[in-house]
Records
---
Amino acid sequence: MRIPIQQKLADLPTTSDGIAIKLAELGIQGRRGSSWKCPIAQYLGDGVAVRPDKIVLDSDKWICLPVPEPVSEFIGKFDAGEYPELVEFPVPTPF
């Protein structure tokens, strides 16, 4: 049984840092700047793209949902370089 997207969003903590902690505990990672591969999209499931202003579901038709403020804040911080533990393919440190 799949958990509805709205329920998964409601299950997230109410701060961006709390969201980062929960995603790390779940072992979820993603790619910076990718709507389809960001940690929130990975958390929500296949066929979900996440932007700071909307969540897009690719089903039989496109469905857009609003993004809760803490999730939007998390996305902005993640894409800006915070939460490196959640990066799926971290950039190697030069020698």
---
Amino acid sequence: MQSFVAYIITALSGASEAEATSGLLYFFVGSLGSVVALLGLSISYLQTASLTWGLWPFSSTPSPLVTAGLLMKIGSGPFSFWVPIVYSAVPLITLAWLTSSPLIGLITKL
């Protein structure tokens, strides 16, 4: 749910075409990352035929698709091609919200 708000704020943060393009890119890459991660989870389920994995869902070996999807969602590793494009087109206040809100959510969850 937080992702949809971030996509909308990124696309509507200004009136320029670059900001709308960066919002669409942010949406497409985030959606692609979710699809890849869900595909990896479904393949993992097909292999194990169980949803109970114990303490950590991927205790034996994590699926490369799940890892790639999550790395794409956070903009890390070789999947960071979209980060400079999106972050350079949005205003500073939107950039501050995009980079700090996931961290605040993570800290409050811990």
---
Amino acid sequence: MRDKKKNRIPRPLEKSGTPATGALLTVEEVSKQLRVDATTVRRWIKNGAMDAVSLPHSDKRQSYRIRQATLDALLATSAI
């Protein structure tokens, strides 16, 4: 079933209501969770500070997807 608002297939959720560990997140979703601008996330990807999957594109801007496990590892290492 597609989400009518954005015409996307909903992400699989774990019992906790968060995206499944194998889920791929958009740059915008990661930026919201980290409370930084999407441009910052893209810069981290280009500099190699964050692993991401590059998607084929025809636009000016490269599209990426970040694995939930990558985000979880980043949050775990930066926890105080």
---
Amino acid sequence: MDNEIFIKDITKRLDLIIKLLAISSLKDSNLTDKICFLHTSGFSPKEISEILNTTSNYVNVILSNMRKKKKNDVNNENQKAQETNISTMNMEVKNG
């Protein structure tokens, strides 16, 4: 039994050290950047909310907004590429 208690205690302490390291590496970042960094580092929204002292719902909203923005950015890039291709084809037809 003593070993089991000891292992649980060490696990809690290691979790705390990991959270403190995550916080210290993000001290100059805004909250959205911190959430993004922690998420890409493998932390769950619940863990992120505990580290940053916010709610997991807030973290999920920020992550959702980031995914939407990324999707919109990709769509905009694809639209620009299509417009460039059409312009190039039109120039080739005119110069033909």
